[in-house]
Each structure stands twice: as structure tokens, then as C-alpha cells.
Amino acid sequence: MAASPSPSADSTYRFDDLRALYINCTLKPSPQVSHTQGLLDKSRAIMDGQGVTTEVVRAVDHDIAPGVYPDMTEHGFATDAWPALYERVMAADILVLAGPIWLGDNSSVTKLVIERLYAGSGVLNSAGQYAYYGRVGGCLITGNEDGVKHCAMNILYSLQHLGYTIPPQADAGWIGPAGPGPSYLDPGSGGPENDFTNRNTTFMTWNLMHMAAMLKHAKGIPAHGNQRSEWDAGCRFDAPNPDYR
């Protein structure tokens, strides 16, 4: 049986009006080899092929101060690269957090980035919704120890809590055999050839593009029943009044 034509050739599956930001939360500064980058590049190549404008930030290359305020120089730190990075986050329709597993959990850099994303959780958009509304989030995980699903749950929960929309199957990862062993890009690891990882990475990438396009064409999440500005002004969107009897 002849293979079905690739939908990539159909203009229906072009996403030239979308922007995607990948934040690589490896612990290794450039130009050291990042195994997370190896997996990230597979997802990015799919997006590039469909016309998405993509960008990668290696968080550890930037002097991001810890904290949960938009600009930590206002809270005792001498420098903070996050305000400039936040502008790049807000320019993207798709955000993918990618990082390694350490001790069964996300890296300290991943946690730092999530904390700084949280710093913008009180910002509102022009419709009075939280500012991350209308954007789509996903994650990629690498390592040589168990914990992909745990790490993904933490990241995807955090992103949706902040206002990102999470499409189906918005995570992918590779860990190889449980316990000490080769990392993703190590010779003979089998990582780049792993069908399960390649399938999930591909599905995740397409679902992110589809969902982001749907939201963009719909001009975001409808602004009714979720406007912080209206709630603060006294509107309750038909929510029942508390009954204290």
C-alpha cells in the first residue's frame, strides 16, 4: 500500500502566523552539549517546517534572579535578565519548557523559570483576563533516571494554572534504561532513534501548533466568566451567592 501523502504539503497545515519559544532548562551553559537540546531540536524542526517562527533560549546563559516578582532588581538583586526574557515569552503563541531530570524531579533551572513565569500571573491583558490566556504550553524531558511523567505533571500543571492552554499529549521525553546510563545524545544510547519518544514528540508538536492556531484565529479564550478586572469590579458572572444559613 502506498504511503499517504504528508499533510505537511497541504497549505492547511501551515502556521506562518505563529511564534514558538523553547526555553532549555539544562544546567549546562553554552556551548556545552545539552542532551535536552537534542530532543528539543526534533520538535523545533517540525515547527520550522510548518512555518512557525521559533526561538530557543538557554536559561542558564542568562542572569535570571530567583523570585516571584516581575523585576527582582526592585527586591534586592543587582541584576535580573528576566524582564527582557518575559517580553520574548509574551511575544510567543507557544511556550515549551524543556529540561533534565535530577533526583526524579525537574532541574533547579526549570523551577526557577516557572517561578519567574509566576511573577507575571497577576498581569492582565486588554480584555481583563490573565495575560497568559490565549497561549499554549508543552514540555520536553530528558534524563537517565525515572521521572518523566512526574516532571511533566509539574510543568503542565504550573503552565495551565498561570493561564496557558494545554492541548492533548503536550509532553514527551526520553530516559533510556532506569538507573545510571547513557544520556540522550551519547553514542549508542538509542535516544534519537527511539520510536516512542519520536512519536510523542511529534504528536506534542503538532498538537501545540493546532491548538495555538485555533486560539489565534478565535482571538483567544472568550472573555466572559474569566475576567479578573470584572470580578474585582463586582461582577459575579451568575455564580451563586454564598448561602450562610
TrEMBL record:
SUPFAM superfamilies: Flavoproteins. Residues 21-169 form the NADPH-dependent FMN reductase-like domain. InterPro entries: Flavoprotein-like_sf, FMN_Rdtase-like_dom. It comes from the Bacteria. One of its GO terms (molecular function) is oxidoreductase activity. It holds the Pfam family FMN_red. This is Flavodoxin family protein. It comes from Streptomyces sp. R21.
